[in-house]
Amino acid sequence: MSLKGHSITLSVLERDKRQLEAIALEFGKTWGDRPNISKLVEAIARRQLVLAPNHDWTLERIKALNRARTALVDAGEIEMAVLIAQLLLERSELSIPLRTELEGFVAEPVRPWRLQIETYLRRQQPFQLSYQDAAERLWHFNIYYGEIVTHEDRKYLDCWCEETTGNQDLPELVHNWCLRLDRITEAAISPIPGQWHTSLDTIPVEMHLLRGLAFAYHSKTNQDEINEWLTDPPQVRRVIRRVTSTFWFIREVLRYGKDCQIISPESMRDRFKQELIILCQNYGLID
């Protein structure tokens, strides 16, 4: 005794019919050598074929959602951050590094040591941090000030530490350390006695902005102490900024290119000159 099927009628445009036939042919749903839409629908109903979202999300959309996820983590909204991560993981457009990062986040949304650090920062409690970095080097820091900040889309702990060994910054800034959080896999954290500092160490750096940059520059209100136009020479913007790290400052100035000149202190000018010398050597401009 054969089972009698129930017929359905699909009302679709001709171009949609051609698309359905192409999909049926792609998945081998045919009658003889002709595509068969009925077999395609039957396969979908029986979940032999699974419908998936269109894989056409733009890179900008993915970046925006991932930034929202990290912002939610920083705000303590871990469950919502996990939901966004799971949504992104359903997409095929993700790069392999981002997919690996999100899978690790979903498996372990927030490491316990990260919560401890944030607690001590809120309480302004000095603490000791010991961890092994990605190169398997062991580090120990006594931290008396810290803040979690973003540098170039990565989260860092910028902190003032008792230890200076290995710090290659200027002498005035050797107590400042910048620790990339995603490179800390495990950490031992404990409170220590001492007075909490009010900020990182800083040095004033003067720079002159030229040409179009002088007009396009947006002042960093929490860092720039002076932002003014010079009359001699004209159309030059003078900025004096409190700098906590020569590394990040030089990376910013390099982006400005010929439109920015570091004026003082001489130690910062010399360090920037060394960067330029190495850059010129890389391109064979000097020996």
Task: Explain how this protein is built.
This protein has 287 residues and is α+β, with helices and mostly antiparallel strands. The chain has four domains: 14-45; 59-109; 113-191, SH3 type barrels; 203-282, Alpha-Beta Plaits. The protein has helices at 14-26, 37-45, 59-74, 78-89, 96-107, 112-123, 211-216, 246-256, 266-282, and strands at residues 30-31, 34-35, 127-132, 138-151, 154-161, 176-180, 187-191, 203-209, 224-230, 236-243, 260-264. The chain has a five-stranded antiparallel beta sheet with strand order 6-5-4-3-7, with helices on one face. Strands 9-10-8-11 form a four-stranded antiparallel beta sheet. Strand 1 (30-31) and strand 2 (34-35) form a beta hairpin. The radius of gyration is 29 Å and the shape is elongated. The model has no long low-confidence stretch (mean pLDDT 87).
Chart the SSEs and their pairings.
Blueprint (H helix, E strand, L loop, with lengths): L13 H13 L3 E2 L2 E2 L1 H9 L13 H16 L3 H12 L6 H12 L4 H12 L3 E6 L5 E14 L2 E8 L14 E5 L6 E5 L11 E7 L1 H6 L7 E7 L5 E8 L2 H11 L3 E5 L1 H17 L5
Antiparallel strand pairs: 1-2, 3-4, 3-7, 4-5, 5-6, 8-10, 8-11, 9-10
Helix pairs in contact: 3-4, 4-5
What is the third-level CATH name, the topology of the largest domain? Answer: Alpha-Beta Plaits
Report the sheet-strand fraction.
15-25%
The CATH level-2 architecture of the largest domain is identified as 2-Layer Sandwich
Give the domain tally. Answer: 4
- Coarse structural class: alpha+beta
Walk across the major sheet and give the strand order.
6-5-4-3-7
According to DSSP, the number of beta strands is 11
- Oligomerization state of this entry? single chain
Rg (CA only)? 29 Å
What integer is the average pLDDT?
A: 87
Main sheet?
Answer: 5 strands, antiparallel
Return the CATH class of the largest domain.
Alpha Beta
Shape: elongated
Uncertain regions: pLDDT < 50 for 5+ in a row?
none
Q: How many helical elements?
A: 9
